[in-house]
Design a protein that fits this description.
Elements (H helix, E strand, L loop, with lengths): L6 E4 L4 H24 L6 H18 L2 E10 L4 E6 L14 H15 L5 E6 L3 E4 L20 H8 L6 E6 L16 E6 L8 E8 L3 E3 L4 E12 L4 E8 L2 E9 L5 E11 L5 E11 L10 E9 L3 E7 L3 H11 L4 E9 L2 E4 L4 H4 L2 H4 L4 E4 L8 H12 L3 E5 L22 E8 L2 E2 L1 H5 L9 H10 L3 E5 L8 E11 L2 E11 L2 E6 L6 H9 L3 H14 L7 E5 L3 E3 L4 E7 L11 E5 L6 E4 L1 E2 L6 E6 L5 E9 L2 E2 L3 E6 L2 H4 L6 H10 L4 E3 L6 H7 L3 E9 L4 H20 L4
Parallel strand pairs: 3-4, 3-6, 6-7, 7-37, 9-15, 16-17, 16-19, 19-20, 20-26, 28-36
Antiparallel strand pairs: 1-2, 2-38, 4-5, 8-10, 10-13, 11-12, 11-14, 14-15, 17-18, 21-23, 22-24, 24-25, 25-26, 27-29, 29-33, 30-31, 30-34, 32-33, 34-35, 34-36
Length: 716
């Protein structure tokens, strides 16, 4: 190694040759010098030195010398351009364009200024997502429910193998994670801020609540809050309740005179005049301009009935009747009669036994629930239930040791084939089928993953009634290992019976779920019972296509799942249905549905809403279309609570990561700052001296000067 970082090595003539060659050259130069002295050439040393230098250099070059040395050079910038795609980027800041559109335009300009090929694009909200170009983001909406901007540089480093020199983040700085901007020690982070850093006023609707059920001509109340941020004090807000598209009620609330932030309660009363599944929307109007109108309204649904629905619950005195009786009696939209029959006779509801023995009297009820009273019911009472179902009634049967599934009489013609009772002291898990998981009956949580987990953790059943599924039955859950006929024994199924419909819970012990609720704060029992009542009481849909949505309410940006059940004659060969999604003020979006594996006639699709408000969904095929299904989509409260930008957060993040903060107006200077701060790196360079013409020219020059000196001395 030579001083100054130089390193010399040889890759040509081996040393065992180069050594003797050098010695031979030295001997030749010595003899040449002696001959010059003998010829009395003066000075004799000059030609000898010139020839010796030429020969030495020739031998040196023949050895293939290579010089290695370090150099410092500028690195071309490689930038990641990140656009904040959280919901707060929908704010217009008093202009015509959203922050989102303005940020995308600035991102494209920065990319062009940096040369295009040296940039990579990402969008970031609660997660980081790479894009092929900024143009790909034009088709997207900023629907991220949260903003984790502080984590974006670290997430990009994990998601990409590219060694970025700079990360450019275009954002309003509203990080909802609560994290402080970290010093990551990686690429420089330049921040371009959008929105005003001054305290910004905003008002929105939050915590809206109203009953799920209502009745024509009966008044109900809608309650909620108007949340106000950065109020100057004393602002008034008109709060309106709209039933469908018509204004139904109004009130006025006023912000405190001291200003600041506030939650203003409101109560709106409404007496619906029409029955049906009604969309109720609360809207606010503020005197001051609102930069974030996405949260100015909120919707919910009320199922308005023309009259209260009547239910009859027949069971034996036991834990199940205690909990289910209380649940049914507490429903707002129904009148529930409870009849308890035991070994000693009628325990409760003696006046109802006459009705229980007559199918005509039972027809006054919209739904009958039959539990474990079969052994103590009269044959006429069991036959009346069978006739009630055949004539068009709706019947829920609770299985187990004393279930109607094991009763005789006319009940033997039930599609829920009576059979023996089986049990397992250790208990067994009730396993939902694909049919059950895709439908609304077994949906105990909004997400599919959470729903599966709940069913995995529910208390085991001990006994069940064997029942073989009749033709056309829908099996929603089954036994984990025992068969009834050609398939696993059904634990939950529904089937037609005459003009009516029967739902069977073949296992007993649902009451144990209520004890689990006390321990784990779960509402699984109430949700299942509510789903069962809704399914059995809903108006029959004669359409060949039926559509089910994963939720009636969702946060903006959340995925809504749709499942369609299509009759075979409603589909042409090779056809799949199409899901149509209509957002407020937007044209319908059509999404091809995909077949569900292992389920004939079942299809699914997903939709991510890009705007708040009531969306309507329809599944259609060549043979017909479903009834429209609504879903209310709400903006994320945390994203719109304060619509102004957080300049202090953005400046601190840029400072900690060696970058620069720019306002929106200064976005054109970002590329220059990236280029100016281009890094320098040290690199090792190898250079072969053999390939340098200058050295061979030096050999020739030395020999030429030697020849000229001899010629002048008269030796040539």
């Amino acid at each position: 190694m030579l001083p100054g970082g130089f390193e010399l090595s040889f890759q040509g003539m081996p040393l065992w040759i180069a050594g003797p060659a050098a010695a031979l050259c030295a001997f030749a130069v010595w003899r040449y010098y002696r001959s010059l002295k003998a010829a009395e050439f003066q000075p004799a040393w000059l030609p000898a030195a010139l020839r010796g230098a030429a020969l030495a250099l020739a031998v040196f070059l023949s050895a293939g010398p290579v010089v290695k040395f370090d150099v410092e050079r500028e690195v071309s910038p490689r930038a990641a351009i990140v656009v904040d795609s959280s919901q707060s980027m929908m704010s217009k800041d008093g202009g015509a364009e959203e922050r989102w559109a303005r940020a995308l335009g600035a991102a494209e300009e920065i990319s062009r200024a940096l040369g295009g090929k040296t940039t990579s694009f990402f969008i970031a909200s609660d997660a980081v997502r790479p894009l092929a170009s900024a143009e790909d983001a034009r088709a997207l909406r900023p629907v991220g429910p949260e903003s984790f901007i502080a984590a974006a540089p670290d997430e990009i480093a994990k998601a990409s193998d590219i060694p970025f020199t700079d990360i450019i983040i275009l954002t309003d700085g509203r990080d909802t994670s609560g994290a402080r901007p970290p010093a990551l020690g990686g690429p420089r982070a330049h921040i371009v801020g959008f929105g005003s850093p001054l305290p910004s006023f905003n008002a929105g609707v939050s915590e809206l609540s109203m009953p799920e059920y209502g009745f024509e001509g009966e008044e109900f109340e809608a309650r909620g809050f108007v949340h106000v941020t950065n109020s100057s004090g004393g602002e008034t807000f008109d709060v309106e309740l709209h039933d469908g598209g018509a204004r139904a009620a109004a009130a006025t609330v006023k912000a405190p005179s001291g200003g600041g932030d506030a939650r203003l309660p409101f109560t709106l009363s409404h007496k619906p005049s029409e029955s049906g599944f009604r969309a109720m929307t609360v809207k606010i109007k503020a005197a001051a301009p609102d930069p974030a109108p996405e949260d100015d309204s909120r919707s919910a649904f009320v199922d308005v009935a023309s009259a209260r629905r009547r239910l009859l619950y027949i069971d034996a005195p036991r834990w199940e009747s205690k909990f289910l009786g209380a649940f049914l009696s507490g429903l707002d939209a129904t009148e529930a009669d409870v009849l308890l029959i035991g070994p000693a006779g009628t325990f409760k509801g003696a006046e109802l036994r006459r009705a229980a023995a007559s199918a005509r009297a039972l027809s006054e009820y919209n739904l009958v629930v039959a539990g474990a009273a079969a052994p103590w019911m009269k044959p006429a009472e069991r036959d009346a239930l069978a006739e009630y179902a055949e004539r068009g009634g709706r019947l829920i049967v609770l299985g187990g040791r004393n279930s109607l599934a094991g009763a005789g009489g006319r009940w033997k013609s039930s599609p829920l084939a009576p059979g023996s009772t089986a049990g397992d002291a250790a208990g067994f898990e009730v396993i939902p089928t694909p049919t059950g998981l895709s439908g609304p009956l077994l949906r105990l949580a909004e997400s599919e993953a959470d729903n599966r987990l709940i069913w995995k953790t529910l208390p085991f059943a001990q006994t069940f009634s064997r029942a073989e599924p009749p033709p056309g039955a829908s099996v929603h859950a089954e036994h984990p290992w025992l068969n009834c006929g050609a398939r696993r024994c059904p634990m939950i199924m529904d089937a037609r019976w005459g003009r009516g419909r029967v739902l069977l819970f073949a296992f007993d012990g649902l009451w144990r779920w209520k004890f689990r609720e006390r321990e784990k704060d779960s509402a699984a029992y109430d949700r299942l019972m509510s789903n069962a009542l809704t399914m059995m009481l809903e108006t029959e849909n004669p359409a060949p296509v039926r559509l089910f949505m994963s939720a009636r309410e969702a946060t903006l940006g959340a995925t809504l799942s749709a499942t369609a059940h299509v009759e075979p004659d409603a589909l042409a060969e090779g056809e799949t249905p199409v899901l149509s999604a209509t957002a407020p003020g937007e044209p319908a979006v059509e999404i091809p549905m995909k077949p569900l594996e292992g389920r004939a006639g079942a299809f699914s699709a997903e939709f991510v809403p890009g705007r708040a408000g009531v969306h309507y969904f329809t599944a259609s095929a060549s043979g017909g279309a479903s009834e429209p299904r609504p879903a209310a989509v709400h903006a994320s409260p945390s994203e719109f609570r304060n619509p102004g930008s957080d300049e202090a957060f953005m400046k601190r993040m840029a400072e900690l990561n060696g970058g620069t903060y720019f306002t929106e107006a200064d976005a054109g200077n970002v590329a220059a700052a990236v280029k100016k701060g281009a890094a320098r790196e040290r690199a090792s360079v190898k250079k072969s001296l053999w390939s340098m013409p200058a050295l061979f020219a030096l050999v020739a020059a030395l020999l030429t000067v030697e020849w000229i000196s001899r010629r002048r001395g008269g030796l040539v």
